[in-house]
Amino acid sequence: MALALSLGQRGQGTCWPNPAVGCVIVRDGRIVGRGWTQPGGRPHAEPQALAQAGEAARGATAYVSLEPCSHYGKTPPCAEALIKAGVSRVVSAIEDSDPRVAGQGFAMLREAGIEVTTGVLAEQAARDHAGFFLKTEQGRPFVTLKLASSFDGRIATSTGHSQWITGPKARRAVHAMRARHDAVIVGAGTARADDPSLTVRDLGIKAQPVRVVVSRHLDIPLMGQLARTASQIPVWLCHGPSPDPERARAWEGLGARLIPCALQEHHIDATDLLQQLGHAGLTRVFCEGGAALAASLLADDLVDELVGFSAGLTIGAEGLPAVGSLGLETLNATPRFELIETRAIGPDVLHRWARSLR
After folding, report:
1. pLDDT 10s digits, 117-136
2. How much is the pLDDT for 256?
3. Which one from 46, 67, 288, 305 is the annotated catalytic residue?
4. Do 67 and 8 meet the contact criterion of CB atoms below 8 Å apart?
5. 3-class DSSP state of 272
6. Are 31 and 57 in contact, with CB atoms under 8 Å apart?
7. Residue 331, C-beta contacts closer than 8 angstroms, at least 6 positions apart
8. Is the per-residue pLDDT at 74 higher than 80?
9. What is the pLDDT of residues 25-36, one digit of tens each?
10. CB-based burial of residue 113 (10 Å sphere; 0-12 exposed, 13-18 middle, 19+ buried)?
11. pLDDT band at 357 (very low <50, low <70, confident <90, very high)
12. What is the C-alpha separation between 201 and 282, in angstroms, rounded?
């Protein structure tokens, strides 16, 4: 099952809106087939592994990181494929929360006389599939908030100078994290100040994440990197209900997708923003700031994982904070996160924090 989960992770960032599933076929103690959800969400993991196993799948055990699907969509049900292949046992990490499945895949297998074991490495599977579950159950994607800051929590000097607070190894790690998410999202201020490309570079990655910018008025430079590459790599602009018509037409002409969102006190409503992204199919979103967007997501309790890169330098109180105002009066008004990883990356320190998912 650990291998199936590891294989499934290979599909993260490329198979949305489908879950990133891994499957391993074992017969007589030997692995005869492996598979994971392919880019675009098809083929699913089980048919991939069964094709590799061939006749060796008959009488074998299939280890699957998520309950096999039981409904007809653009492909036949994976539960049916396992039955036709003649596997004798299916071991699954966790039940699918999609109401089209929700235990029906297991039921199909049992009705066909296949032994079914569930709950193996379920906690890890719940984390791996958290984005798909959140989209299915709450209509929004999983949100990772990444902050790269000085030791005293600043992301730039008072003049806005920020390149580079962290070193090249930390920046390379950020690119790897982008690749495992469906989209990278920033606020309009970051897009204007940094003119980012928000792509994955120097890792041999072909499939790029969607670039999302939150801009109430669409006041983002039409000559920047995002505009120049919008026809090749998707750019989604989440804006308020009354954007400037000329800017809207200009961005659409460049190939960008415009997504209207509701307002909350003159700002884009973070809850509606994520609902719109979930409706568009996204399951995992990587937020890289700025401070106002980070504060908005945190204030509405919409952050599922925190990723921090801390550098060994101080900028001082006049520097720009990593997170904008939250208006807190007591500490119990903000969610706490559990430390799940900490390690050195070059001269910097990576720390990851996760909320309890279930």
Report:
1. 999 999 999 999 999 999 99
2. 97
3. 46
4. no
5. helix
6. no
7. none
8. no
9. 999 999 999 999
10. exposed
11. low
12. 21
CB atoms within 10 A of CB 230: 22
Which residues lie closer than 8 Å to 162 by C-beta, 6 or more apart? 155, 156, 194, 320
Take residue 182 and report the two structure tokens written for it.
Answer: 């469906």
Phi, psi of 239 (to 5 degrees): -130, 175
Interatomic CA distance for residues 314 and 329, integer angstroms:
26
Rounded to whole angstroms, how far apart are CA atoms 340 and 228? 38
Contacts of 341 (CB under 8 A, 6+ apart): 350, 351, 352
Q: How far apart are the first and last CA of the chain?
A: 21
189 contacts 216 by C-beta, under 8 angstroms:
no
CA–CA dist 297, 242 (Å, integer): 22
Q: Tokens in use for 266? A: 């003159």
Do residues 321 and 159 make contact, with C-beta atoms less than 8 angstroms apart?
Answer: no
Active site residue 341: no
